[in-house]
Amino acid sequence: MHRTAIYPGTFDPITNGHLDIIKRAVKIFDTVIVAVANNVGKAPLFTIEQRVEMIKESVKGISQVEVDAFNGLIIEYCQQKGATALIRGLRAISDFEYEFQMALINRKIGKDVESVFLMPKEKYTYLSSSIIKEIAAFGGDVSCFVPDVVKRHLNDKYAETKEHA
Ligand code: ADP
Question: Among 55, 68, 75, 145, which is 20 to 30 Å from 39 by CA?
Fold first, then answer.
């Protein structure tokens, strides 16, 4: 049986922590679909197209990965794609409460989809998209935290903001 998992998130932008989780997930599942949430509520820095593009570029070498955008309920998206699992990354205790709540709600809505939690390498546990944006906004070097394509996009983005300041 072909096993498909969905890894949903805002990915604004993708970091080496997200990539670590993707690499672990493909060891367990045949196909992993990285599903980028439109998530207007979070007022993302990058457009959905840019976020999808950066992920596609970052996972080029991993054949089992697909990248897509989605709107609405993640469980409905899973059912649409025939996925049996939802991947989430757990960094620290601070992620636990929110993830626990989401997993239980998703279980209530979609009984056939299991949430699977993976832990990244220790060195990525303190990484988040928001901290990356903060460092980049102040001109800091993010090379060891994000793929090259993301670094380039961040540089462009903040150069743009400076020009308009
Ligand atoms: P969301 O808005 O859904 O939280 P994110 O893009 O912030 O979207 O995160 C998507 C998933 O990846 C979440 O499960 C989050 O806990 C996980 N994640 C984010 N950063 C890391 C990291 N550095 N290491 C492991 N998992 C991470």
Answer: 145
CA of 165 to the centre of ligand 1 (A): 31
**Residues 6 or more apart in contact with residue 99 via CB below 8 angstroms:** 88, 90, 115, 117
Q: Strand 85-89 and strand 114-118: pairing?
A: parallel
Which residues does a 6 A CB cutoff place in the pocket of ligand 1?
9-11, 15, 17-18, 21, 88-89, 91, 95, 120, 124, 127-129
Coil vs helix vs strand at 126: coil
Secondary structure class of 142 (helix, strand, coil): coil
| CA-to-CA dists, residue 33 to 25, 92, 141, angstroms | 10, 24, 30
- Quote the CA–CA distance of 115 and 59 in Å, as a whole number: 22
pLDDT tens-digit readout, 39-92: 778 899 999 999 999 999 999 999 999 999 999 999 999 999 999 999 999 998
CATH 3.40.50.620 fits 4-163, yes or no: yes
The two structure tokens encoding residue 159: 């150069």
Report the alpha-carbon distance of residue 112 to residue 101 in Å, rounded: 17
